[in-house]
Amino acid sequence: MKILTGLIEPHMYAGFSGGRKAILPGISSFETMKFMHSYKMIDHPKLTNCLLEGNPFHEYGIRVTELAGADFILNVVINKERKVAGVFAGHYNHAHVAGCERVYENSTVTLDRPVDLVITSGGGYPLDATFYQMSKPLIGAKDILRKGGSILLACECREGLGNPEFCGILRSVCSPQEFFEGYCDPENFVIDQWCAQNVYQVMEYAGKVYVYSPGLSQQDLEKMGAINVENIQETVNELLSSHENVVVIPDGPYVVGMIK
């Protein structure tokens, strides 16, 4: 009997985590990962937070989970204090969708229009232990930002950028265009290129990305195109004086802004 366990929360590729993700990509092969996290897949416009319909990442997950013969899921959702706020059990799709609906009701905020500035966070420890996970709040900020707007991200990153493959990409690529040209070819696929792809998507879209992170060097931040922030309060004051429409997201990727 195949029982899937997991946590349901917003996910920038699958719409929501949990359910079918225990199979795909949870226990999938490297070859499958090369397809599910390919440049083309990550570039798909419907790979986004809190969207299931028409999302190929979600739809492939459902197909593979059905083929694998999942019998039952036991998923939870958590509240702001990281305590269990709901338990969803049963059919791998139906129970999961019920959990997704609960998360959508409590984790999304609807805006009338894109904003000029997003001030966000890495979600706190342990999520912001490395910059690898910071693609989540950055993509969340991009989705509600006007083209050319500004983002200020506060994150600790006590363990640095992340694993060697991710570091290698960020330290070897000089611009979003160089990344796109170098990694769009499936033959050049490397582990963790998907997170780097998200970072460069944000750098290309936003006018300026400011990062306050005691755990990252100015050299690494500037290499990826970000602006190193030493005094976050001074930077906030300066940005507020020059941006009219501002959104602040203290909980980072745990709250998803959506344009009406």
Can you walk through the features of this model?
The protein is α/β, with parallel strands linked by helices. 36% of the residues lie in helices and 23% in strands. The chain is built from ten helices and twelve strands. The strands form four sheets. It has a five-stranded parallel β-sheet, sandwiched between helices. The chain is globular. The termini are far apart. The model has no long low-confidence stretch (mean pLDDT 96).
**How many strands, which pairing sense, and closed or not: the largest β-sheet?**
5 strands, parallel
At the fold tier of CATH, the topology name of the largest domain is 2-enoyl-CoA Hydratase, Chain A, domain 1
Structural class by secondary-structure content? alpha/beta
Number of helices: 10
What is the distance, rounded to the nearest whole angstrom, between the alpha carbons of the first and last residues? 42 Å
Write the topology of this structure.
Blueprint: E1 3-7, E2 10-11, E3 15-16, H1 30-36, H2 39-42, H3 56-68, E4 72-78, E5 84-90, H4 94-107, E6 108-111, E7 115-121, H5 135-142, E8 145-154, H6 164-172, H7 176-183, H8 193-205, E9 208-212, H9 218-224, E10 227-228, H10 232-242, E11 246-249, E12 256-259
Parallel strand pairs: 1-4, 6-12, 7-8, 7-11, 8-9, 9-10
Antiparallel strand pairs: 2-3, 4-5
Helix pairs in contact: 5-8, 7-8
